[in-house]
Design a protein that fits this description.
Chain B: Keywords: 4Fe-4S, Iron, Iron-sulfur, Metal-binding, Oxidoreductase. The complex is a heterodimer. Chain A is 32% helix and 13% strand. By secondary structure, chain A is an alpha+beta fold. A five-stranded mixed beta sheet of chain A has the order 6-7-8-13-14. In chain A, strands 1-2-5-4 form a four-stranded antiparallel beta sheet, with no helix packed on it. The termini of chain A are far apart. By secondary structure, chain B is of the alpha+beta class. Chain B folds into three domains: 95 residues, Alpha-Beta Plaits; 142 residues, Sulfite Reductase Hemoprotein, domain 1, CATH 3.30.413; 51 residues, 2-Layer Sandwich (Alpha-Beta Plaits), CATH 3.30.70.20. Helix content of chain B is 26%, strand content 20%. Chain B has ten helices and twelve strands. In chain B, the strands form three sheets. Chain B has a five-stranded antiparallel beta sheet, covered by helices on one side. A four-stranded mixed beta sheet of chain B has the order 7-8-11-12, covered by helices on one side. In chain B, a hairpin with a 5-residue loop joins β5 and β6. In chain B, α4 packs parallel to α8 and α9 crosses α10. The chains are: A alpha+beta, B alpha+beta. Chains A and B meet through α1, α2, α3, β3 and α4 of A and β1, β4, α2, β5 and α4 of B. β4 of chain A pairs antiparallel with β4 of chain B.
Chain lengths: 429, 374
Amino acid sequence: MSEIKKHDTPMMEELKKGPFPSFVDDIEQYGEKHKKQACFDLLGQLELSYKHKETHWKHGGIVGVFGYGGGVIGRYSDQQDKFPAIWAFHTIRVNQPASKFYHTSALRKLCEMWDHRGSGMTNFHGSTGDIILLGTVTEQLEPVFFDLTHQLKMDLGGSGSNLRTPACCVGKARCEWSCIDTQELCYDLTMTYQDELHRPAFPYKFKFKISGCPNDCVASIARADFSIIGTWIDDIRIDQEAVKAYVGGELKPNAGAHAGRDWGKFDIQKEVIDLCPTQCMYWDGEKLHINNKECNRCMHCINVMPEALRPGTDTGATILMGAKAPILEGAQLSTVIVPFIRLEPPYDELKEIIENVWMFWMEEGKNRERLGELMQRVGLANFVETVKLKHVPQMIKEPRSNPYVFWKEEEVEGGWKRDIKEYRERHPA
Amino acid sequence: MENRITDIGPPYYAQFFPPVIKKNYGKWKSHEIIEPGVLKYTSETGDVVYVVRVGTPRLATTDYIREVCEIADKYCDGYVRWTTRNNIEFHVTDEETLRALKEDLKSRKHPGGSYKFPIGGTGAGVTNIVHTQGWVHCHTPAIDASGIVKAVMDDLIDYFESMTLPAQVRIALACCLNMCGAVHCSDIAILGIHRKPPLIEDDRLEYVCEIPLVLASCPTGAIKPATVEIDGKKKKTVRVQESRCMFCGNCYTMCPAMPIADGEGDGVAILVGGKISNRVSAPKFSKLVIPYIPNEPPRWETTVKWVRKILETYAKHARKYERVGEWAERIGWERFFELCEIPFSSKTMDDYRLAYDTYRTSMHFRFTSHVDIK
């Protein structure tokens, strides 16, 4: 193996200082140990970017593996003479297991493969959820894919105008609030729609995210075109003895989340009752009362008193749609489309909704138009009708204030075909 | 195409569950944060599991992952998980192992002195910064990601390792306004922005760009088709009406012949007040309060200073459970600017489409230092 060339990187050196884990130190240690020129060339190019305050990656790059239309992000340096080991530096997205539990036997195999076939650098994880293998050359893409599928039993994630890799919160694996089986649903949707994930057939990207409760720990409402958020329709379960233990100071509010500062003695009136957004709670000094009919299930009281309050047991999910980042028409959060749906395998009712939405968007969506933008363009009411769902007040925050209402001809008595002569018989000009 | 395996999807999640997780799946009863970075979950079966959460730089080598494996093998029967904010969580079932695990994690440092696995990120503190590729891998960034995140987290490590804030504070970074990740819905967000219109490479554009896509990529309709003559040959290209361009860079995403990056022009904008959870108030978008801070590699001192200033002003004034956005809305944004000592700028006033909804159509405001009283 030829000698490793290190670049002069004084600004990278600065990023070794300070207490938070230094990616520079990690990359440099790795590069030295494994004699990886790519590590030093990456730090060298990053140093140059720090000097110029501009990126040194060329625009775009279309690479991949046979049979798939996505999963690999091609990238080429614009300083190939200076940093030849990263002249091509493609990223491979690997579909993570739902909620990102691993066993080291699998991780070690992945590391060995990546040492051998790539830069040794990764992101754990990409924002959508994938394991990111950061940096390899085009010739290694097929061998990486072969090793992933044959030896590691792993597949690529999504990129491009397709279904991206679904992700979920930790769910029932380790949370007492999860109203749905987030991992099972995430896995089922990922497997059901493998074709849509690997072979781009959509107007633009489409993301699923699944959270077990309205705390939304996977940020589904902000980061998925199709957001599935667990909820319940019966009463919050109350353990009155535990409520008293909070009031008496034996239990720490919010499970101790504020323990680093003296906020005074727990005050159930101030910290729970008065902060309830619907004002549907009442503490009589002995018992906690919740008017569940008025509760909007925001999770606050449950978050504050996890030993005393739990979500109901008649559970399902709310489906919201249309979240996206600003480009093109402005950022959107997902909006309520199905207030409540029960979710049990094989999730047929849910899949029918998904497929109706896709059918409409694939037909009507413009090039690079996210679902949320299509919903804006055709109007929420039209969208809901087209995907065969029912209009309900839960879909809106408030009724429209302008009177610019569309009626269909068949909704109006007598229709729209009128005769001016007939009108003039009643109203001479 | 021989021997090709496709469409197998991810590994089945449950094979990676630690035994205590598998056994108590769906049976968890409650949890407790016993100290910063350490959670205890209790099951209806009586089982308990302790979770130690540690910060990571997200960008990591296989050796770093191997070190995680070594720790997981030693204390956790080889099981480990990552969170939705790129922290790592180790699971143990007894206090003795918990103590040993914590000691071990605290002892591991890089040669430069940084901790490899700082314990924290729970409760009402600052947890890991969700961030993007920056100059490490992307072609459209206006700022770096990993470097700024390191600089900000070095400065805020005490808040990562403690729970002293009114509520959890989510910081996110995106290196351009594609906003990959969570910038549009975070308590404090660091966003890369440009301030110069794109360059136009007339001699190359028609060969590398689909002009209709370029025209359609502009949110303000600033791009028009054009024809130019170069060396006696007519070439199709585009023109940007500069007064209508707000430098989003989306045309460059579509067209490699319209580069926009500029060392002097580019920099950081700060947004605040977003949230995702439904707790008490509805999810909120973050709002732009500082329109521009120059790029200052390698340590971005001004950005770091403003993030701390906003965080500490919030910590001082907000009520228990109140997120940054809830606090700012309660006291009024005029008071937010005054308390944080952020100069108010015309740039923070919306002028895109539904901007009217963000104007003050009431008499309800506080007098602050911004108003000239003569």
